[in-house]
Amino acid sequence: MNAVALIPTASAHTFADPEARLDLLADLSQRLLAAAKARGASQAEVSCSEEAGLNVNVRMGEVETVEATRDRGIAVTVYFGQRKGSASTADLRDESLEATVEQACAIARYTEDDVSAGLADAALMASDLRDFDSWHPWAIDADHAVELALACETAGRDYDARIENSDGASVGTGASLGVYANSHGFVGRERSTQHSFGCAMIAGRGDAMQRDGWYSSALAADDLESAASVGRKAGERTIARLAPRQIATGEYPVLFAAESARSLIGHLLSAISGGALYRQASFLLDSVGTQLFPSWFQIEEQPFLHRGLRSTSFDAEGVATRESAIVSGGVLERYVLGSYSARKLGLQTTANAGGVHNLQVAANAGDFSSMLRDTGRGLLVTELMGQGVNTVTGDYSRGAAGFWIENGQIQYPIDGITIAGNLRKMFAAVEAVGSDVDYRSHVRTGSILVGRMTVAGESADE
């Protein structure tokens, strides 16, 4: 296949000519599809990806790691009727690529028929392939990255004399290229960048130590918070957690800060994903068309956002994405499906093979200060711990830390508590979504106020 000669080298953490490399990956995908067809495959698909990055970590003023990464992956899936086989490689030598196709075909010949197997329907393939301004390489070398990481950590350590230790600071930059192609004739190309600053501080001594941090992440380096700002915010958050108190076990309003609130949306997505549904492992089976949230609540999928973290014209199967509601008027409008899970359920794909593409949770309230006022008296959750969520039953129980709210204002830090409930009841009890959106995730939501949850804190005999 002469692949090695066609794929040029590039600098450590970027691509010198990304469009040329995408051309080469697209050409490689076509030759792999042709090889699968020559071996008798009735359908085939190929995913080619390349990633490059630079990550540095410092701690207590010293460099801990400087890592340049470069990864490549070629995945081939073939179908012989409704028998499927997949194989992958990172080796672009001709013999390795030939062996990968042969291995995929061999696997397919020995698997059982699966009536749900196969490519997405040809009529659903994307044709309007757009650019979403997601390519912003950062011309930064290791020395400059180390300088920024040290500046970030220094700002955090200098914030308060009680910060005597650090969990370190990091700077990262990465670029990725991808091509998906299948035997319907679809070829989709994508490129994106991602950059970040992160910092975590430790304050206090002995059993009184507390840790917290902050990070900034964006597709373009110009959109990042400054390194010093990230460090100061990490210091501020850490100092705020010193001398935590306990609260009595009881039922209270719980305000999830924006960075914690998106986990609630994540639990919803897990419960309405195709895999959980066709395995009957979800508390939201047969729930499309039912009222899950209050009537004002809305979640929109917006795959075409300018500089959206997961903006795309097509999903992982080449199906054209589209703007649509997941929840409208509090009612669950649809599931989150790829072609395989849709066929298992007797439904149509929702163009979500590979996940969702930018969710916007509509706000019905004001900024963070107004959300505190709306809460009145209750718990602000800024950190969640553990994995105590049962998607089958909807039961929810997680360790948490945050702050006690009294008279609409933060009073003191809280630690060592557990918050519990049932997701179906929690969704119905959502009272407000703030406008304080956290843009560091493809799930864009502000803080979320749940009217009442069980909070296990100090027991009666303590």
UniProtKB/TrEMBL annotation:
Residues 136-242 form the Metalloprotease TldD/E central domain. One of its GO terms (biological process) is proteolysis. InterPro entries: Metalloprtase-TldD/E_C, Metalloprtase-TldD/E_cen_dom, Metalloprtase-TldD/E_N, PmbA, TldD/PmbA_N, TldD/PmbA_sf. NCBIfam families: PRK11040.1 (NF008268). Pfam families: PmbA_TldD_1st, PmbA_TldD_2nd, PmbA_TldD_3rd. This is Modulator of DNA gyrase family protein. GO terms for cellular component: cytosol. Belongs to the peptidase U62 family. Residues 44-108 form the Metalloprotease TldD/E N-terminal domain.
